[in-house]
Design a protein that fits this description.
By secondary structure, this protein is an alpha/beta fold. The longest helix has 18 residues.
Length: about 210
């Protein structure tokens, strides 16, 4: 896993999926300000990268969740990755919206599923964990058995870890913030000034930039 994590970190940096804007911070859905943004949607535009992520996900699911009946992607960032993994494993695929659709059938979960099916949830990015865990709750309320969640990347926030522990949902990721930053420093992708900013942000992300 360590070798895979480093490889994915290298890919994310190579395709410039990592954005640094200390002077013009990003605002996340949680309201937190951040000098860094990981745009995993970019990985879909690079066949070699998306295939590596797909195969890494497939290997992880085969190892950890061999009894999975179905793959569920979290909308919108993980729909494509989830579908690619489901296709690789020959499993059915569904996806979960952030909320019920306000028109049509009013679905929050799209696709065919049955109560009692064992589901592995695929996510592209874990920040505070709120959106991801909402998908887990929706699946459970629909009668599915969530075996766990796998994601491309996590910022490793305590808030997210506490949230997954509270919901009793196992989280495994292909790469994480620590590996990414270490790789970025070694490759010269970030400067010492950038690193200092990132350390200050990482120490208290909920109040940084306010």
């Amino acid at each position: 896993m360590e070798k895979s994590a480093k490889k994915i970190a290298e890919y994310l940096l190579q395709i410039k999926a990592i954005k640094l804007q200390p002077s013009n911070p990003f605002t996340w859905a949680s309201g937190w300000k951040s000098p860094i943004y990981c745009d995993n949607r970019k990985t879909l535009s690079f066949p070699e990268v998306r295939s590596y992520i797909r195969d890494s996900f497939a290997s992880l699911i085969t190892e950890l969740y061999p009894k999975a009946d179905m793959i569920a992607g979290v909308a919108t960032g993980a729909i494509s990755h989830g579908a690619l993994v489901a296709d690789k494993l020959g499993l059915p695929f569904i996806y979960v919206r952030s909320g019920a659709k306000e028109h049509g059938l009013g679905n929050q979960i799209e696709g065919y599923y049955e109560k009692g099916q064992k589901v592995v949830v695929v996510e592209d990015l874990i920040s505070t964990g709120g959106t991801s865990l909402n998908a887990v709750k929706a699946l459970r309320e629909a009668g599915c058995e969530v075996l766990g969640m796998i994601a491309i990347f996590t910022y490793e926030f305590k808030k997210a870890a506490d949230g997954f522990a509270s919901e009793k949902c196992t989280l495994n990721t292909l790469c994480n913030y620590s590996v990414l930053i270490d790789t970025a420093v070694k490759t010269g992708y970030i400067t010492e000034s950038d690193l200092d900013t990132l350390k200050k942000w990482r120490a208290d992300p909920s109040t940084w930039g306010i």
